[in-house]
Amino acid sequence: MVQAVMTIAAEDEAPRVKGRSRLMRSPQFSSFVILIILLAVFAVADANFLSPLNISNMMAFLPELGIIALGMTLLLTAGEFDLSVGAVFGLAPVVVMLLVQNGGVDIGVALLAGLVLCISIGAINGLIVTKIGISSFLVTLSMLLVVRGAALYITQGFPLKSWDQPGFFVTLLAGSFNIGSFRFYTSLWWFIGLSLFAIYILRYAKLGNWISAIGSNRNAAVARGVPADTVKIWLFIATSVLAGLAGMISAFRISAASPVAGTGYELEVIAMVVVGGTALTGGRGTILGTIVGALMLRAIRNGIVLIGVPGLAYNIFVGLIILAMLILHALLQKNAARG
Amino acid sequence: MMQDVLRLQNLQKSFGSVRALKNASLTLREGEVVALLGDNGAGKSTLIKAISGVFPVDRGDIFVRGEKVSIRSTRDAMDLGIETIHQDTSLAPDLSIARNLFLGREPVNFGWLGVFAPLDLAKLRKAASELLKRVGISKKLDADALVSTLSGGERQSIAISRAMQFAAKVIILDEPTNNLGVEETHGVLRFVKEVRDAGHSVLLITHNIHHVFQVADRIVVMRRGEIVAEQTVADTDLLTVESIITGADMSALLKEARAK
Ligand SMILES: Nc1ncnc2c1ncn2[C@@H]1O[C@H](COP(=O)(O)OP(=O)(O)OP(=O)(O)O)[C@@H](O)[C@H]1O
Ligand SMILES: [Mg+2]
After folding, report:
1. What is the pLDDT of residues B37-71, one digit of tens each?
2. Whose Cα sits closest to atom 9 in ligand 1?
3. Cβ contact (<8 Å) for B119 and A206?
4. Considering its fold, how many domains does chain A have in total?
5. In angstroms, how far is the first alpha carbon of chain A from the final one?
6. How far is B212 from chain A (nearest CA, A)?
7. A166 lies in some domain
């Protein structure tokens, strides 16, 4: 835990200045504290929460939403968001599997086609948002319908028959391994690797400086020669590709591709990102916060069921906890301004 | 004779049916402060946006040090040594002072990595603190502080020092003292003089004629997209300038009133 706290401190802009108070006030730190409290509460309430089986289950599911959340964090920091990620999550594996099963295409070629598809969807989102100037809410909402509709139409609404050839790509994306009595999937490595890369980009790379500046004050960034539109288009593409990757991981893991997979994921992912402390209005983004947010939402969804909250009441709690987190961030932000 | 740093010739720009610039011509010499005056909507911001590459002009030529140039983007203008501080603030509030100072021209390691190159954070901080020290605001400000925690005057000083740091030939300020307190306003004006004394040329847009007489060498007045007057400060006075801006002959009116 001490180590985790220090990592969070390192991500803060100026740990040397007013170090402690700034750390305490940083949104990812407050999210982290709440995560620990939640984990403790669930662990006390139900001994099974920390059992190897339950932890393995949570970790199997975490990367699939977490990977999309990384892209969404960068996009939100640049001041845009993408509602079509859940639909892309569903469409990519459906297209890949259809090509393999009905078209007799090699799996590698099919995956490449899936990648091109995701790039195209992201590029179309980005081009319409930046070049025509329609808000990303409206553009990606329409895209959600188009993409989900396409997945339903080409499958006629039926899930594709299961995938039972373990090959190289399945191992690469959804292989599993055991550590003691824990069972982990390779997707966890993908999540960790991509998280580190995203932290690097946002915090230490020139690109991250541009992303934050664009979301903070687009005109100011453009006036300094920052290619704001190009950056945004590439972020839409990255988010779309990550959604497709997550979809493939999920489909390989459960050996099935369903046209309705990923329904509602867009909001779950955005919740993860903002609960972690990234501002919905752009300019302020934190990848560590998003990782904490992703862990938190997974833990809440899992723990609430375990401690016996009735299934139908479950979203009430999830919603209330998200709301409480956002209120906390808003109060901290108010305090920090001119503090 | 001092050299012409910037010369604009017959610039024209229309937004739909609005002719924001009609044949605007203007010359800026080395080491002088030119005040650009005019009522709201006269076309001042449009003129400087054209020079700074925010949008292209429809017609007309721009010369930098006698050489004809084409300015198609903000990057082009910056590369030509023209730095602009726009009316709508030029800083990103969620970034630190240091990051703002170098936005778009970040010092990096491993430059071949392009946009993925890591920022040289040590150099960034050091250069930022040095700059703040040079412009005399280092006592109050820390290079790592977020711009959102600064006052309007402090932000304006940061924006001006950023323009200075790249040794720009021309610094353009669009209403830099807007919304500033008395002390902060004097800070900015003092800054303008320092910038000039350091050899830069300044184009200053303002609605405050008193400021003009404090810092400017020359006055250029715009009305409805045209340059209607050009005078050296030494050869004119406040009332004359005011009357040119509004188009009414105020000094004549005043003489009349006195005579009565
Ligand atoms: N992007 C634009 N689209 C349409 N019309 C514009 C645009 N920018 C400026 N104009 C118009 O051009 C004219 C000149 O505007 P400009 O901003 O240059 O005035 P200004 O002299 O800077 O005024 P102020 O002192 O109020 O800042 C105005 O009539 C304005 O409405
Ligand atoms: Mg203006």
Report:
1. 988 889 999 999 999 998 889 999 999 988 999 99
2. B46
3. yes
4. 1
5. 28
6. 26
7. yes
